[in-house]
Each structure stands twice: as structure tokens, then as C-alpha cells.
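Forwarding these from the shared drive since the link keeps breaking.
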Amino acid sequence: MDNAGYVALTRQSGLMREMQAVANNIANMSTAGFRREGVVFAEHVKALEGRNPSLSMADAAARHSSPLQGALEGTGGPLDVAIEGEGFFLLETPQGERLTRAGAFRSNEAGEIVNPDGHRVLDAGGAPIFLPPQAASIGIAADGTISADGAPVAQLAVVRPLDPLSVSRGAGVLFATDAGVEPVEAPAVLQGHLEASNVAPVTEIARMIAVQRAYELGQSFLEREDDRIRTVVQTLGRR
């Protein structure tokens, strides 16, 4: 395969990754706390030997999560919380601490506040949060302070990464960072609400159509290039 074929294949590979990202966005447009993901295309330039021009290929290995706020939807659940503005909740997982915008929490049998996957929610000091088993009512203030029957018991950790570019997507609605986190100075936590996905369905479907058409054009080019090479080989083979 010549250089034109390799260039086309790298483009096709990138378009396939983008199609997977778009499909995942559409599948999660109803998932609370989900952040839309896109693929970042870059150019990889390779110097060739002699006087040949450089070779440029597409590189679509990087991904980007949209920071746009999703709509805040009221649920009335005492442990359903949403963040208005910047910040993430902090969870303890087997893989280490993780960030999330999905605040559909509950209390487990041990009285710990956990997410639907059973990961413990951490407080501002990095410790798990326990609720008194006899508490009749739970209140959560705008700064994340949790009260049981009017008595404060803990404060939800609302943090932001020190380096936003270090944030990587984990499983589901979880995010990780290796640059550390810091508390959000004036968080806005809403009890009885959840943040909806920030995926715009119409935009994603339009993007899916555009990517599909671009992939089909690339496939047509590869087929024509293959026919050209086959014709050249057959012609030279007759001589």
C-alpha cells in the first residue's frame, strides 16, 4: 500500500473512533451527570527520506469531555444532589479517588452515603460519610453541609482539578486526575435535584450523519485507490 492508502486509513480509523464517541453520547443522553465526549483530531507529520515531501496523517487518539452544565432536574430525593456551576463530588473506588457530577446517592446498610455502584461518597476531609440510622430527616445546604434532624454530620466534598487538562474519563460518569484537586470556594449544591446529561440529541444525530458520510467518502477513495494499484500491477505484469 502506498502513502495515499495509509493516509486514508488513518483518517478512517479516526472517524471510526469519533463515531463510537457519538454513539456513546446518544446512548447516555438520559444518564444523569454524563458529559458529552468528542474526539480531537490532530496532524502527525513524518519526514521522508531524500527529497520526498513530508507525509501527513490524521491522529485521533485524544478525547475531550464537554464542561457545559447539564439541565438541573428536580427529583425530591433527600440524597439526590446536583452542583450548579463548577466542581465535582469525590468518590472512593477500588481504583482510587474519582470525580463525578452524578449525585444520585443513597444510604447503604452500614449508613454510608454511596453512589448507585456502591462507591462511598467522601466528605471535605476525604473520609466516608455516615448517616445516623435513627435520623428522620436529612438536609443538605448549598455549601454541601449534611444535617440529620437539624444537626450537622458532615460536608460533601466539592472539588475541582488543579489542572483541568489532566482530567481523564473513567467508567460511566466517573473522571480521574493525577494532578490533584482543591476545594471549590463557594459551591452551589442543590438538594433534591440531579444534573441531566449535557448531550444535545439533535446535534449528536447531525454529527453522526456527517461522520458517516465522511467515512463513506473515505471508503470510496480506498476502493478507487485499490483499483488503480491493481490496474497498474496487471498492466506491468503483461510486459
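-- next protein --
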Amino acid sequence: MSALTVSGLNVWFGTDRAYAVRDVSFDVARGESFGLVGESGSGKSTILRAIAGLVPTWSGTMMVDGETLGPRRSKAFYSKVQMVFQDPYASLHPRQTVDRVLSEAMSLHGVKDINTRIGRLLDDVGLGPGFRFRYPHQLSGGQRQRVAIARALACDPSILLLDEPTSALDVSVQAEILNLLVDLRREHKLTYIMVSHDLGVVGHLCERIAVMQQGAFEEVLSVAEMRRLEAKSPYTRHLLKSSIKSIR
């Protein structure tokens, strides 16, 4: 059974139905890392937001672990699926300590032994106990993103939606966060759906990628095919050739 199945997904905004995503279908196996790539405005992040229940205007079918998603997401859904956003500073409450951020996330899902689990989460993301009572403004960008990842893991989900998780970080820190995500996926047996405009980033983390243009899939190919520039679509070939240094 697939971890996530999306079939015939359309997403629109406004009363005049300006479509951001058109007839998108894909499956993600359990334990797989699947990437969505394309230029800004191609609909990548909108797909993640639709899966997460942050966009109400959509049609089609979305399923998680065989269960069909309706217009609203249940508490059980959010115990399975969590999202890591692009800007770690904007996604963390500026007046809440790391301890409170993680405690509230666990309390919402009825997690027990919160005190012990906070320590374990901070260790998992490479932050020690000294970070527990710091505020976001006392953390670097990479440290804030580690806290955001820890928060996403607080309820022990099986699927993470990663919306450009490294694009707001310095290049030197990007590699650290990517390697952390690789390790966490292996240790926690996670499934990833990742959005990025950087093919090098996707190639580091994913097995397959879907190339998007104007809200639709151009094609889906393996990372090995991407690196060999084995694309059928002219748009995909152009995209790969323009990023050839980062994907090899």
C-alpha cells in the first residue's frame, strides 16, 4: 500500500477559479522520498498545502495509508502527516521557548512523558539540552530549522511534507540540514514529499522527482535518470541542462 496517493488533483483560488494545480496524479511508497521541482509559481508548494489541508478549494482524490482525505483534516491525520516550512523563523512563535514549542505540539496529540521526549527530540536533530529554553531570536537559521523539524517529529508522524526546507539557509548550513533529514528518514522510517527549486538538493534526498510547469506535471523520472539527463519533455531537458553542475 502506498503511503500517499494523489489522483486528478486540481487546486484553484478565487471565485473565478484561477487554477494553480491541474490534474496532478502520483503515488509515494512507504519510506520513499519524492521530489516536486520546477520554477517559482509552478504549483509545487500548493500541492503540499492541499495535502496538509491548508487549501480548501480543490478537487480530485488524496489518500494517506489507504484512507481518503475529505475537506477537513482530522487529528489522526496530523498524527501521521506533518509539514516543515521554508522559513524557520516565521514558522516558530517568537515569544515561545523551544521547550514550549515542542511541549505544545506533543500535548495536542496526547503524547506522554513529554519531558523525556523533548530531550530525545533535541538529540535527534543535533541540538543539546542547552537549547531547550532558548527563544527563536537566540538561534541561528539552521538551529531554528532543526527546532521546526523536531516539532514536526513531536507526534511521531510517518510522512513529512518538506516545503523548501533549506532554501532560506546559508549554503554551508543547507548541507547540514539535508544530511540531518537523510539520517532522520532512515532512523524513523519516514516518507518524504519534498518541494525544491534546487535540483541538487532534490537529488541528494529523493529517489524520484516530478517536474512541474504551470500547475501540471511535465514528467516523473528517477534521480538516476535526472543525472543522466534522460528526459523526454523539452522543458525538463532545458531545466536539467541549466542545472547540470548542481545535479552531478
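The chain is about 40% helix and 25% strand. The first helix runs from residue 44 to 52.

- D.
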